[in-house]
Amino acid sequence: MGNSDIKRQALVLLAIANKPVCNSKNSSLIHEWLHEILAGTPPKFNVQIPVLFEIAAQITGNFESFASLYLKTIQPSTSKRYKLLEAFAKRGGPFWFAIWEQLNKHPKFEKELISLDWAAPQKPVNASGSKQSLQRVIGSADNGFEYEHALIKLGLSLAKLLEKTPAAYEKSPREISITISSEDSWSELWQQSNEIVALSLIEKEFSVDPRFKVPDWIVDSNSDSHLGDEAKLYWVGTVLRAAALGGTDYTGNRWKQSKTTAYKGVRSNWYKRRMGMMHSPENLVGEYSTVSSWFSDLLCRCLQWPGFESTYVKSQDILTIDGLSSFKRILKLRLTQLNTLVCSASNLPAIPSVVDRKRSPTPEIDRLFRLVTVQQLMPYQDDFSMAGIKLDDPKYKARHTEHLSTVCKIVTKTLEAKRASETVESGEKSYADLIVFPELSVHLDDERIIKRLVDQTKAIVFAGLVFKDHQGKLVNVARWFIPDYRDTGRQWVIRDQGEENLTNIEKSLGITSYRPCQHLIVIDGFKDGPFTLTGSICYDATDIKLAADLRDKTDLYVIAAHNQDVSTFDNMAAALQYHMYQHVVIANIGQFGGSTIQAPYKIPYERLISHTHGSDQISINIADVDLAAFRREVKKYREVKTKPAGMK
């Protein structure tokens, strides 16, 4: 390593520590320029300088000061100022927000301020009335486009707008007005009764938003025209993705900012992001995933980039889209399907997530679904008063982590013992289809333990998480950990199931009710499948309206509980398994016991598949259940006598 390399590393280290050193009068290294900017004396302007102001702002956390310094630096470059600012406008982020605030304070930048108003930071406002600017709705706290139902309606309306008003092509959401059928219901656009009546262009002069310009690589395969259906589908995709994200930069995501203090580099630019967008529901709307993987596939189809492979699209119907007409047809079919899944009595949208789980080709094994209930001891009810409502006390947290890790090892060993007792040959030592943990059993920081268990058992896990923050409020969540195995490796599908009905204890702790949707996990790959699973958190399972809604939609109802009234839940499970006519599973905390698996079989000992009696017990129960038993048509014949001896 040469002296110049050592010098660069030393300069980077000092810069990150915010200890600028300005010794050289004729600095030629970009690292030295960064130090000069940190010291408030920027060097002579060149094309490499702008990004250093953002880096300096990230290092110090003082975005306003370095935004102001940047404007002073570029002020003499009158002819280039727009381009120098546009790069940050497209990139977005806190440094651009600071630049925008400073632009409003500098009269000499009035021209650029007007030209860049398409990138003005959005302030959340409530949408009211039945007609609004699409951008206002998208950026509001009542953005109903977080739901797949509403996004499909928007997609259909955008396609109609293009047919009726070709000038709408490449317009941004702020240039489009939207009218709905039900006033003051912007947050419930998923409702079947709440229709988008019309989209239209706003009659006003707007500066052009370059982010919604369709890239040159989009060419219609039939006409070799940039203005063909492929280009129109791309533009529709940009608006749909922006609506789902709740902002006008359709290339963004909803990843949470890490709390870890570290050098994170510069925010990626807009040009790179649009050629590598991740469309998974978690990136678009967060872990509650109020859109499905089907919508992700739709965005993949619309927002294609050079080198994109159609093999990433799993939904066969989306692969048939070859223009606006087929686009509308597929969206109408999908909307009809989603409307039939709505839990009408509970006023709750249901979001299906299809999971492909190929099993052993042996018919008898292929017919059974391996289910595991885990009854761990921690956390005890009193732990929330001693270790904090989020169980963040360091000493307690270490004990809780160790307990969860040990319980997961017991699960793996129990599955291995079960596999060893079977006569069917299998290359897997431990295998399960679904593992259910109790309510409040897993701390967010211990997700890695659950994911390691999933990797060892290839199972889907439904586990209650310790109370977590959501938009500044504490909520109760049960999380689906779903492994998605592809040729490129294992990926994670995360679905958070919220809780609507709170107990008195939860209310006293300040927990907020939040259940945006009911997740339906559709398991494909079984001989008699597909099977549909769904889950609830403890007290929600007592809502008879929800049970009625789910009865004809699911094959397995899973309940994560932290409940001391075991006898009531025993009776509830016995009632639900018959009235819903499917398997019902309750995984309760070991402090109270009562974890059970029940199904509506005629014979009592077959009806009660497993039940753990007694308190303060760790228990792991494994059951191979026939999820198709209550929908399979079985032919019965009149009984005959046993054949005589010697008859073949």
UniProtKB/TrEMBL annotation:
> What superkingdom does the record give?
Bacteria
Q: Which InterPro entries match?
A: C-N_Hydrolase_sf
- Name of protein: Uncharacterized protein
| Source species of the chain | Reinekea marinisedimentorum
